[in-house]
Every structure is written in C-alpha cells, then in structure tokens.
Amino acid sequence: MPGIQFEKVGKKFGQVEVLQDVNLSIKSSEFVSLVGPSGCGKTTLLRILAGLEHSTSGKISVNDSSPEEACRQHQVGVAFQRPALVASRTAINNVKLTLEITGNTNNLSPNKLLQDFGLGDFLDHYPHQLSGGMQQRVNIASALVHNPSILLLDEPFGALDELTRESMGEWLGQVLLSTPKTVLFVTHSVEEATLLSDRVVVLSKLPGRISDVLEIDLPRPRTNEVRMKDAYLKHVARVRKSLYNTLI
Amino acid sequence: MSEKKAYIIMFITIPLVWIVAKEISGFPDFLLPPPGMVGEILWDEYELFLEHTWITLFEALSGYLIANILAISLAISFLYIPWFESLALPWTVVIKNIPFVTIASILIITMGDTPAPKIIIVVLVTFFPILANVTKGLQSTDQVLLDRMKTLHANHWQVFCKVRWPSAIPYYIAAHEIAFTGSIIAAIIAEWLFARKGLGFLIVQAMTQYRADRLYAVTLVASILAVGAYILVKVLERSLSRWQDQTLT
Fold this sequence. Notes:
heterodimer, A: 248 residues, alpha/beta, three-stranded antiparallel sheet, 8 helices, 9 strands, B: 249 residues
C-alpha cells in the first residue's frame, strides 16, 4: 500500500527507550506533522524512516518497501534542520548534486525548481552568500529535485526568524500543492503544523508514543491569511491543548 | 593595505636595510657584501646557480610529490579502515619525533651521495603536516551532508568525491602553506649535511672558501625559491577556494 506505515515501532538507544509502540499510517500525498515535547523522539522517528537509524522493534513500510529499500529506489527526499549544502558548490550545483547521485531521469528541472522557489537570481550564489531562508529553500529543492514520492522534513524552518518562518511555511504549502508528496514534517511550531498539515500527530514525552492524532480540515490553499481565521485558531488551540496534555 | 602592496614594500625595504646595515656596521665587503656585489656574482655565475638550483628543486619537488601521495593515501585509509589509524599512530609519533638531522646522517651513510637520502628527508619533513591536515579535513565533513548522501544511497566513491574531498580541500591547502616551503628548506639542509650538488652544497662550499658574496647569493636564491613556493600555494588556494572570496552582490 503506498504511503507510510508504522506498526508497533520502538527504538532504544542503549537502555534509554526513545520510542514505544508507534502505530501510524500516512496515506499517499498526505501531509502529516509530528509535534511533541523536546526529546520525545520526533527526529528519531524521521531518521528511522530515512534509513539513518534502525528501529529496535516493529515494522516500517514505505511504499510497500523497507525504508532502506525506499532510499535505494530514491523514493525519499529529506531536508534537515541545518541545510545540507556543499559550501564550494553554488545553489544550482547543490541541487544538481542530488541528481548526480541518484541519476534519476524522472526528475524536476533544477533550474526551474529554483526559479519557482524565488531563487532565479541566486542560482550561481554560494551557500554563504545566501540568507538562512534562501539556504533552506535550496535545501528543500535539493530534497525535491529527484521527484521522490515521500518528503521528510526535520524542522526545516527551526533556525529562521518568526517572519521568515511564516513566509516559508506558506511557500512550502504552495510548493506541495503543485507537486504533491507524502510528507512527514517534524516541527516544534503548533501554528506551522496546523497551517500545513492534513493531520497533526502528537507524541508524548519520553518514551515517545502517539498520544493524539488531530485532523486539520481547513480548505487549501492555505495562505498566511488563514492564520487570522477563527477556524484556524480553533485548530491551533486543539493541537496546543493536546500538546499540553502530554506534559501532565 | 593589500597583501600585494605589502610584499612590494618588503622587497624594496630589504636592499635598503641591507645598505644601511652595511654602512652602519662598517663590515668589509668580504664579510658583508653590498647588494650590488651579490647581484654581480649571481649574474656572472648564473649557470652554476641555475644548475644547483635545479638539483635542489628536483629533490624538493620529488620528495614533496611522494609525501603528498603517501599522506593522502594514508589519510584515506584512516577514513575507511579506522583500526589502521590506531595501528599507524605509534609509528607516526615515533618517526615524527626523531630529529631528522640524525635520520639524514644515517641515510647519507647508507645511501651515499645520491638524490635518494635528500628526497627521503624532504618526504619526512613534509609528510606529517599533509597527513594531519588531510586526515582532519576528511574526517570533519559535516554530518548533515553525510546523512543527505546516505538518504540518496550514494556509494563510497560518490561520498568521497562530492562531499568528503571538497570539505578537505581547505585543510589540504593549509598544509601546503607549511609543507611546500618546508620541502625546499629540507632539501637544502639535506644537501648541507652531505652533497656535491645543490644549493646546500653551494652553502658549504662558500663557507669553507670564506666567500660571503656567494653565501649571500645562495641565501637570496633559496629565499626566492621558498617565497615563490609560498606564493604558488596562495595562488592555488585562491583558484581552488574562489567560492570563499565572492561576496554577496
């Protein structure tokens, strides 16, 4: 079945149990955000999905394959909190790096992708010549260019200021409307998760377990205007309340 | 002030200081020859200087090339075979800390007046800074980039060529700054200990013959070679790290 399935997934680092009995099913083209207290295992869950860590127990299926197999087939794109860019490569060459590795032919055009991401004038700029928001856009473009069906985002806007963060959130929503992907988005921001997601999954404190799953039925496209609407604010309050419950 | 201007000022200042020092000290020409006299001997005996300079350069460059090949190979093997680094560490510590003058003497006794002992000395002097820097450069690649490569299922060769080596280049260039200049100094010292050719030999010959003019001329040639090596590294650094110099437009 396409999409992502976690069945009773657990993870221990030595004696420390980080994840326990995580059961979650993410449909194809669904946007799911993962929120929870610091250190509850959100990033670990994403890293297991990216094939960077192995679960200690349970089963994970990514488009009917193991996470490692899905990576081998280049079905997964990952953007980390810190942009994974080669300092000596320009923005365009950093995006092309993904294609040099994967050799995918069914890819998006790196040039057009960066144009669409508002970086048309910065193709030949090096990472240190770009602002934090621009670097993150190159980072996400690098994760998207080989056209993976799964996109994993680990707090990609975590290091940005509030205003940039909000505009980046709106921008990401628009990008995914034009190129739909199955997305798992790890974030600390309740507002960001509510704006972007079809569902918000709340993890409890260590060991991380799913304590709540909240549907966000706001119509798309969701621009920053939505942030002022009552329906949005109600969803934010629901997610926040659920998050507070994990701390009790 | 730009680096270029500072160099020009220095090259103008050196002969001026030289002339002033000679005037103040009152040393005779056979002890402290004036710049003109040194220039004259360089002009008159340029074939001799050229011949010996080539010999020193050959030894320095050969040794440096071998040191680079060995150090880079070893640094790469440390990266992919971690136990090999632990195994090699005591060897590198011991070899690095034996005074190379003693090793040079042993090599000269064993190998005689051939280029081999001089080349080996150059290798010993220049190998360790390259090894240390390239090892550090290769091992300090940003983990987030390595994670990106892993999620893309990159093979070892791709990771090395596209991520690890570019990360190591600034460290490698920094090693050249020390080691490339050091290769010329090492070759001269090795010749100075025992040789019948090369700039080191010319130094010994000039000392025994009390030829201060020739001694100063050799010093000048050796300095030009060493500074030239440094400038060459700087040019290489600029061309390889052009991306670092570009500013936001």
